[in-house]
Amino acid sequence: MASNAMVLLCPPTTTRHHIPLFSLHKTTTSLRRIPYFSSYSTSTRSSSRSISASSRAMEALIFDCDGVILESEDLHRQAYNLAFAHFNVRCPPFSEPLIWDIEFYDVLQNQVGGGKPKMRWYFKENGWPSSTLFDTPPETDIDRANLIDTLQDWKTEAYKDIIKSGSVEPRPGVLRLMDEARASGKKVAVCSAATKSSVILCLENLIGMERFEGLDCFLAGDDVKEKKPDPSIYITASKKLGVSEKACLVVEDSVIGLQAATKAGMSCVITYTSSTANQDFTDAIAKFPDLSDVRLKDLEELLENVVAA
């Protein structure tokens, strides 16, 4: 196992609800806790730079979807568990369907990008499961791929049903920032590691059809060979937008997304969630608990400071 991999230990006990308990131990240095603050401090702005100058620095504003447009981590976790229960996915030595609890999934989703890679990593580390699809754990690459594909497809449909329920709201400030960017002539894009069908559904239901159809670029995990933290999705977006990497500002919620953006040569601001707040966002140019108090001019000035540095 690589030195930055997670080690998952499954004790032989279960809860009174017969849910396996998972104790997670990481071999990496523990994540540094970041301070909480409500907005970008105006004291750090340079009054010598005008808005017109900063406007030239930013040409495109790119949003991640999960965790940025909507706080989706637990929704995905619920959908995975529904898929595991539906197909009676049982990992050795347990006889009950697999359940990813909140504590475990918070770490998993921040260290492994994409649904299929998450399951593949988990099964490689903890043993391939039996299920209604395969009475015994699959041993060939083809059977294992079929298992992963079927679980992911079913999970995606379960996630769509949750989004369609009407109970999910966009995170504060996102829609306003999108509208401000478009009104000021900036290009607006969404780049998500999730499957295209699930991202489209989220965008249609949460930002509305008019904003979705008005996006200058939309890329999902299906559109690139490598998932975040690989920079492929942001490099591709830059080319499609016709904008240099330095003129793009990315809004992400996790260290995986931050790494993808910075590896692509883009600056990144973080709007963290409860499950990503403890991550090390040293390479971000700013961190916010949400975007409710963040205006486009704040982001313009942040990027201008980076470009001028």
TrEMBL record:
Matches recorded under InterPro entries: CbbY-like (IPR044999), HAD-like_sf (IPR036412), HAD-SF_hydro_IA (IPR006439), HAD_sf (IPR023214), PGP-like_dom2 (IPR023198)
Keyword field contains Magnesium: no
Pfam families documented for this protein: Hydrolase (PF00702)
Key word Secreted present: no
Molecular function GO labels: hydrolase activity; metal ion binding
Keywords (A to Z) from UniProt: Hydrolase, Metal-binding
Family designation: Belongs to the HAD-like hydrolase superfamily. DOG/GPP family.
Entries under PANTHER family matching the protein: OS08G0485900 PROTEIN (PTHR42896:SF4), XYLULOSE-1,5-BISPHOSPHATE (XUBP) PHOSPHATASE (PTHR42896)
Protein name, as recorded: Uncharacterized protein
Organism annotation: Lactuca sativa
